Amino acid sequence: MSAGRQEPHAGKQGPAKDTTMAIEAAKAMPTAIPEPVSSDPAYLKIRDLIYRMSGIYQPEEKLYLLVSRSARRMSVVGAKTASEYLEHLTLRGNRDAELRLLLNEITIGETYMFRSPPHLEALRNVILPQIVQAKSAMGFKRLRFWNAGCSTGEEPYTLAMFLLEESEKLLAGWSFDILATDLNDNSLEAAKAGIYGEYALRNTSELLRRKYFKVHDEKRLQVTDQLKSQIRFDRVNLSDDSKMVFLKGMDVIFCCNVLIYFDLASKRRVVQHFYSNLLPNGYLFLGHAESLFQVDDTFRLVHFPGATAYCKALAGAAGGGKK
Amino acid sequence: MTAQKLEKLQEQVKKLDSISTAPVILQPLLEILRMPAEKISFDKVVELVSYDGAIAAQCLRMANSPLFGCREVETVRAAVMALGLQRVRSMLFGLCINRVIPKDKWVFEPVAFWRHSLGCALVTQRMAQRIGYAEPEKAYLGGLLHDLGILVNSLLCTKDFRKCLQSATEQRRALHLCEEEILGFTHCESGKMLAEHWGLPRDLSDVAYGHHNVELLPAPQPLVCLVHLGDLLCRVRYLGYGYDEIMGMELGGELAWQTLAKTHPALADMDLARFTMDIDGAMEQIVATVDAVFGTAQSAASK
Fold it and tell me: Which of A76, A144, A219, B49 has a Cα at 20 to 30 A from B106?
């Protein structure tokens, strides 16, 4: 693959004859590269503040999302620039409330069914085979899942559909429990009713819609009783230590975009509970933009294709795919 | 791998000179790749770019793209300046290699190969900068060149290498494990041979050799460890070899991580979750950049 025999005479060789034409052609060519977002550096400070306070992170290339979400709050509070809005978030008396309102904007519309296929792929390809193997060796045939902060039910119903679909394959002969909890009674009522419109169902295939839903009205579907029966809904305050200590024996916990509203001390306490709630080699999934950095160092961060999760495992013990 | 197979492969790598039709700028380009970044002559790079019409056109196209914020670059010199020597160097290398390997010998989709190589270069460099590694430029080159062996295997054992890729794709396993089974050697071994044959610095041939298993080297080196981690991170962020691997790994449990942490304490404090999200954020641009250079340019470059 060496080109020694064909080396150009460096210094003597001029540009190729077709260069000018090629240059002209190149200038006319369209480009696939997206427009970069130019933004006020104050948005980076807002981004870092949000990360520090809530653990939710926006990479620089996705800062436009933060810019558009902040815009709504900025117009409400009358902030004309990002720097001015940063003051509202840091210096003004109602800064905590404002941060919470901004977080609401950032996580708004986050919930719909099958929102995170990489999480399910990680479960199917690595986590469940690992857990099934370990539990089988001990003679167990039951799995326990907990959706902490289930909101209006999209996530636990997704998990239930996924597990039912796997019941004939990977989980043949196994049974499972899904506990779905939330603090908000209205959300829990909506979750129990299980009535969803097109937005919530936009990632749900026709096949699954036919299998696990019935028509509720012109625009909405309702989950079948069979699907509902897979889930136990309950009101749980994650800060309620007396209740948290009893939720033992979990294989996998999902807690997406919930911890972001807790202060650091409360967050640490909840995460320590999760650690105790999980069985060894159990996994904790957070929202795709959330991190436990500086919150907890007992969990191990594990990478899966397109997803990360936290494992209750000894160093080097996590992971299933050969590298 | 048996000594006999090793010897045979070595002979074949040496003969690559006579079976391939390398572009004329490859040899002077290799000289540039061998040099430390600070010694690269700007004029020499401009000359190399100018020598080839299609490459010059790509350079201008990139420099004029919004990604670099320049829209009125009209000369090759200005384009090289706008893009930076590092970017131009990897673009030159990529376009050269695209011509070295005839279309029918590519086992990977060239765009998938370059997405992974360039992705690995950028991720490894970012990580190097994040932990205070002394030569981030070297980390970039290590990432760019770590999979040289894939080029060798594509050229020398096209048919069997296709089987390796097919098997890896079907089983969703790492490619090098299938290479071991089918070829009896991996792209790590053949990559080392090509790096040595091209006279690339020792640390880069070590990267080619040890990037899947840092233990293959007598003493684990920071550069190899960095590229190992960069490669893994790319593969779990959809910048792999163009197929879906089943992976689940704890980077902190990797020998490469632990070795690197001894010489670079900043690694222990690194926010890996945030770094991963940064990679996710940069991925669109990496993909767009590679597609802009190697995707639409491929037909012109592989003539």
Answer: B49
Tell me: the pLDDT tens digits for B121-161?
Answer: 989 999 999 999 999 889 998 999 999 999 999 999 999 99
Q: Which helix (H) or strand (E) holds A301?
A: strand A300-304
At residue A13, the pLDDT reads: 38
Q: Residue type at A55?
A: G
CB contact under 8 A, B22 and A33: no
Domain boundaries defined on chain B: 3-20+104-294, 21-100
Q: Which residues of B touch A14 (CB under 8 A)?
A: 50
User: Which residues contact residue A135 at a Cβ distance below 8 angstroms, ignoring those fewer than 6 apart?
Assistant: A141, A142, A143
- Provide the pLDDT for residue B22: 62
Q: Within an 8 Å CB–CB cutoff, is residue B177 touching chain A?
A: yes
Domain B3-20+104-294 has CATH 2.60.40.2000: no
Which chain A residue shows the shortest CA-CA distance from B237?
A306
Tokens of B61: 């196209």
| pLDDT value at A5 more than 80 | no
CATH for A117-311 (3.10.50.40, 3.40.47.40, 3.40.50.150, 3.90.1150.10): 3.40.50.150
Token pair of B194, please? 């090509």
Backbone angles phi, psi at A185, to 5 degrees: -65, -40
**Minimal CA–CA distance to B188: which of B175, B169, B200?**
B175
SS3 label, residue B12: helix
| B172 and B248 Cβ atoms separated by less than 8 Å | no
CA distance A8 to B135: 31
Q: What is the CA radius of gyration of chain A?
A: 25
What pairs with residue A146 in β-bridges?
A: A179, A253
Average pLDDT (A153-166) is 97
Report the pLDDT value the prediction gives residue B69, as an integer from 0 to 100.
64
Q: Structural domain boundaries of chain A?
A: 42-107, 117-311
Q: Which amino acid is at B75?
A: T
Of the candidates A170, A133, A163, the one whose C-alpha atom is nearest the C-alpha of residue A226 is: A163
CA atoms of B288 and B115, how far apart (whole Å): 9
3-state class of A55 per DSSP? coil
Do A123 and A132 meet the contact criterion of CB atoms below 8 Å apart?
no
Compute the CA torsion angle A201, A203, A205, A211 (nearest 10 deg). -40
Cβ–Cβ contacts within 10 Å for residue B170, how many?
A: 10
> Which are the contacts of B127, defined by CB distance < 8 A and separation ≥ 6?
B133, B139, B226, B229, B230, B233, B275
User: Residues of A numbered 49-68 whose beta carbons fall under 8 angstroms of chain B's beta carbons: which are they?
Assistant: 51, 57-62
Task: Give A101's contacts (C-beta < 8 A, 6+ positions apart).
Answer: A73
DSSP state of A283: E
Mean pLDDT per block of 10 residues along chain B (303 residues) reads 78 71 73 78 87 81 72 84 82 81 88 90 92 92 93 93 97 96 95 90 95 92 96 93 91 93 92 91 79 57 40
What ipTM, to 2 d.p.?
Answer: 0.84
Q: Which CATH class, in words, describes the domain spanning A42-107?
A: mainly alpha
Q: Which strand (E) or helix (H) includes residue A277?
A: helix A264-277
